[in-house]
Specification:
The chain is an alpha+beta fold. It folds into 2 domains: about 15-145, Jelly Rolls (Sandwich), CATH 2.60.120; about 150-230, Orthogonal Bundle (Arc Repressor Mutant, subunit A). The protein has helices spanning about 20-30, 85-90, 110-120, 120-145, 150-165, 180-185, 190-205, 220-230, and strands spanning about 30-35, 40, 50-55, 60-65, 70-75, 80, 95-100, 105-110, 170-175, 205-210, 215. The radius of gyration is 19 Å and the shape is elongated.
Length: about 230
């Protein structure tokens, strides 16, 4: 979708409860743009306050250390949104966002977004729940960084992915197979550490790498390993 085209917001999770007439008006208040893979969408500290709805593709929310190391905060897929923090408080962007794949996004101004939230309680509630989720996830990551060694942080990240991708009482299938660099970026360690931990888990019969999927064969055991370290 090229910039300037009017598209549909059907499929955007934040807006899925809106009546069609409201959804159409919201779409008319957006401008549309496509980004290539690895292209920057938002620059940290930018003073822009627009909100972005992902119609197609996948984007990554990142920050960078002083040394330039990338720290992954979240991945946003088709139907997701980002940019609401700056729209709500008017402060500079707290993170950068880059396209992981080719992305088509609808861009709504701060004014129109706040009007949408103000007039539609279902949207306001979802925004609040989204912010609550960000706080909970951030708190968990801070605790992990403060209390867990690097290898345990890798295990904790794999556990989070497993719990979100269960396909049985005690198994999970993660697809696509997570890249070592992506896990390392999320938990602030090296790719070598990630590879070592995953190999150790495979030798213990907890992980199995198949053709296009990473299978967690024993979710309970992985969870027990993390709980033992956390003292839970």
């Amino acid at each position: 979708m090229s910039e300037g085209d009017i598209g549909s917001l059907v499929g955007i999770a934040l807006l899925c409860d809106l009546p069609q007439s409201t959804l159409t008006r919201a779409a008319n208040n957006c401008r549309w743009r496509s980004y290539s893979a690895n292209e920057q969408i938002i620059d940290r500290q930018s003073e822009a306050t627009d909100v972005f709805f992902v119609g197609e593709g996948r984007a990554r929310v990142v920050n960078y250390s002083i040394s330039g190391r990338e720290i992954t905060l979240d991945d946003i897929g088709t139907g997701g949104h980002f940019g609401e923090l700056a729209a709500i408080d008017g402060q500079p962007r707290s993170a950068s966002v880059m396209a992981l794949t080719r992305c088509s996004v609808a861009i709504m101004s701060q004014e129109h977004f706040l009007q949408l939230v103000d007039k539609n309680p279902s949207v306001a509630l979802k925004v609040m729940r989204g912010l609550a989720s960000i706080i909970r996830n951030s708190t968990e990551r801070i605790m992990d960084l403060s209390t867990l060694a690097a290898n345990n942080r890798v295990q904790a990240d794999l556990l989070r992915q497993a719990l979100n991708n269960r396909d049985g009482d005690n198994s999970a299938s993660i697809s696509p197979i997570p890249m070592h660099a992506d896990i390392a970026s999320r938990v602030s360690t090296t790719r070598e550490t990630v590879a070592r931990v995953m190999n150790d888990l495979a030798r213990q019969g907890i992980l199995e790498r198949q053709k296009k999927v990473l299978v967690v064969l024993d979710v309970s055991r992985l969870q027990e390993m993390i709980e033992e370290v956390r003292g839970e």
